Amino acid sequence: MDPSTNKKALALLLGLGFVCVFLLTPAGFETRPIPSIHPLGFVVLAGIFTTVGLNLLGLVLMNRRPRIAAVVVSVGFFLVFTGITIDQVGLFSTFGPPTRISVVEWAFVLIELGVLLLAARLYRVSPRRTAPTA
Fold this sequence. Notes:
By secondary structure, the protein is mainly alpha-helical. The protein is built from 4 helices and no strands.
């Protein structure tokens, strides 16, 4: 698979991840009140939104610095997986996750796993950038 195909597939998965994050907000499917969120839940939210920022940065860097972009977006899987596991075991909020949230969360984990695998492939097939010689 050539780098441009990897980049397109990676961009598509990152876009699907953005949709999942939207669905995980109160504007989407989230119905739990904010006062019910535990302090650890706010750490999880910070991790999810950090993933969004890293994925945006990865999209920006993808064409000019694909190896750096691959490393940047790879971090998201670990943040998302950890955060969603915390929610699923009941440490995010006083209330358990609604069914729709659980479905979107696990879809998000699978999307981020795909991002991780595609990022690893992109890293491998992208040429290493060398410093200009004087």
